């Protein structure tokens, strides 16, 4: 039996790990090749951001009560994180991709020589999530604490 005080922490961390590992399998399913980099990457299905904060909120709700102030706080925190993952970070990634394409076009079409090292920098364009990826993370975050619950209750 694990100490009940660790239930929210372990739920959140395990939900994050499950989502990150699941990304590797989803990538394999989509492409037919293994890429273990997905275990550490942001973006992709399911969202580890969403799974982590959802698991934390649910575990807090179970432990402290769904009518507690700390549950309310974690729910608002979760909504902010999921909104950010789905909108702000997703569109930031889109802007990076557009900027990289513009630089490439300027080099090839106009022959512009961009020697400054900043133009050579490889930026990661997958920063955020599509809505379905956030939803997938949400469901992972609901499932993990429910599976862990028997390990923490007497």
TrEMBL record:
PANTHER family: ACID PHOSPHATASE/VANADIUM-DEPENDENT HALOPEROXIDASE-RELATED PROTEIN, ACID PHOSPHATASE_VANADIUM-DEPENDENT HALOPEROXIDASE-RELATED PROTEIN. The chain crosses the membrane at residues 68-86, 132-153. This is Divergent PAP2 family protein. Keywords: Membrane, Transmembrane, Transmembrane helix. The keyword GTP-binding does not apply. It comes from Dubosiella newyorkensis. The keyword Transmembrane applies. InterPro entries: DUF212 (IPR003832), PAP2/HPO_sf (IPR036938). It holds the Pfam family DUF212. It comes from the Bacteria.
